[in-house]
Structures are given as C-alpha cells and as structure tokens.
Amino acid sequence: MINVETPVSPEELLQAVEHLDSPAAAKLLEKADPAAAMGALRRMGAQAAGDILTLLPAPAKTAVTGALPAEVRAQWELNLTFPRGSVGRLMDPAWAVFPPETTARETIDALRDMVKKEFITYAYVADARKKLVGVVVMRDLLFAGPAKPLSEIMLKNPFSLKAAEPLMDAMREVLNRHFPVYPVTNPDGELIGAVRGGRLFEAQAIEISA
Hints:
The protein is an alpha/beta fold. It has two domains: 10-68, no CATH class; 97-209, CBS-domain (Roll), CATH 3.10.580.10. It is 45% helix and 13% strand. It has ten helices and seven strands.
C-alpha cells in the first residue's frame, strides 16, 4: 500500500490518485514532489489534470505547472478556454508539426529528438497560417526519398475534430475511423492540438456514467 505522506514516483502516484475524486487527488498531489505530480498528471490526461490543478493551492499549483514542459503548460491553459464535455478539454500538444516544404530527411532528423521525449504517432503538416493541410504516416515517411517534401508524402485534406465540438458528436464522427490519434482544429482550420482515440472513449464513458 502506498504511503501518501511520502513522495513517490509518477507511476506510483498515478496508481494512488486514479481511484480518487478530484478534491482527494489534489490533496495527495499537494504533498508530492512537483516533478512526480507533473508526471502523474500528464499520464492522467489533460482533462483530469486540469480538474485537479484548479483545486491545488496556489503555491502547489505554481510548483507543478512550473515542472511541466512549456508546450504542455500552454496547451492545458488553452484547453481550459473550451467548455466541459468538449473535445478541446482533452487536447495534448500536436508535437510533430512541419511546413509542407520540409523534406523527408529533415523531418526524420527532427523526429529523432522528439521521440526521445514524447510518444509520436503521426507528423502533421501546417501551412504558414498554421492551417492543417496534411498528415504523414510514419511508414510513408520512412520509405520516401530523402529529398521528397512532405507536401508529396502527406495525406491531403485530413480529417480533424473541432475543439468546441461536444464529445458525443465527436464520438459519432470517429465511430468508423479508429485512428490512434486525431488532430484538432479551430473554426479557421488551424491545428491547435491532438486527442488520442483511447482518451476520447474514456472521457465519453465518464460523461455517460456521471
């Protein structure tokens, strides 16, 4: 049994908090090492993490959010601008985003560093206005010629979820798609995040049971 008075690893902390309601989880995380708390929250997903962070006292919240990567911190702040029960509350950063003219070699070189820190399933292609214009499957990237630009490798006109979309509507859209990750866009088509399919189904199950 975990001693909640003692700082623990992110994995152990996650095991302790995932069965607690948000207020109890916040009390436990307040006592934990900020780096361990940050690791546990990231494993829980953006929506659950956001709910807990809002309940932390200011000093603990500052310490935990300070331990987050800057991209994650900015993403979670953006997520809170969307309604509860919407896709936007579930977003993680879209990590591998490149302009269309990036070559396969340049993309692979960049991904070598990214995958050491984050789990990356797809690369995304966005134009100068940040509009999502393509998705790159890793197999296609690996077998492409080194000098080939992503504009010639990517899947054009990709499907994306809308950030303000209610979860129930999003579930209907992905029912027959079964992608591991879905890009998320705003009304202008700008790529503003990504949502894992498993996280989407988990969140909908919680909404239904609430």
